[in-house]
Amino acid sequence: MTTKEIIELYYEYANSGNWKKWCDLFAEDMIMDEQLAGHIETLAILRVMMDGMGQAYRKFQNNPGHIIIEDNEAAVVSHISAIAAKFPDLPIECGVMNYFRIENGKIVYMSNFHDSKPFKPFLDQISGKIIEF
Fold first, then answer.
1. CA-to-CA separations, 41 to 4, 29, 31, 49, 65, in angstroms, rounded
2. Given this model, what pLDDT does residue 76 score?
3. Which end of the chain has fewer surrounding CB within 10 Å, N or C?
């Protein structure tokens, strides 16, 4: 697969809630620096984390707006529209910047950057308490 195809599938699988296929896009020794979850290493750990994603959100859409691809790297400016399962009256809207590095047809490194404040309903939900910002 080309870098462009991998990036397109990344957003297609995320937006359809197909987290198994989404995880399949990553290399076994992948590294991710995720704004909310922190530093993640290995696909095995990522799969465990993503097992609950379908139950964590009533809605999750990450729509790419601007994509830059050069060789095995990509940067994507996107917008997340989501609703945490336990807080359906508190929509999450947030601009995001993702960076990807691809090797041998798999994502080996990915990082994202966004404001954490819009994700307060999700963070409250997983922590079991109300988080003040």
1. 24, 7, 5, 11, 28
2. 98
3. C
Q: What tens digit of pLDDT does each residue of 44-86 get?
A: 999 998 988 878 888 999 999 999 999 999 999 999 999 988 8
Backbone angles phi, psi at 44, to 5 degrees: -60, -45
Fold for 3-126, please state it. Nuclear Transport Factor 2; Chain: A, (3.10.450)
Q: What angle do CA 68, 62, 106 make, to 5 degrees?
A: 55
Q: CA 129, CA 9: separation in Å to the nearest integer?
A: 35
Look up tokens 């830059």; give the residue: 68
End-to-end CA distance of the chain: 41
Which residue has 């020794």 as its token pair?
A: 29
Counts for the chain of helices (H) and strands (E), in that order: 5, 6
Beta bridge partners of 8: none
**What are the boundaries of each domain within the chain?**
3-126
Q: Which two tokens stand for residue 98?
A: 């993702």
CA distance 32 to 18: 19
CA distance 117 to 85: 17
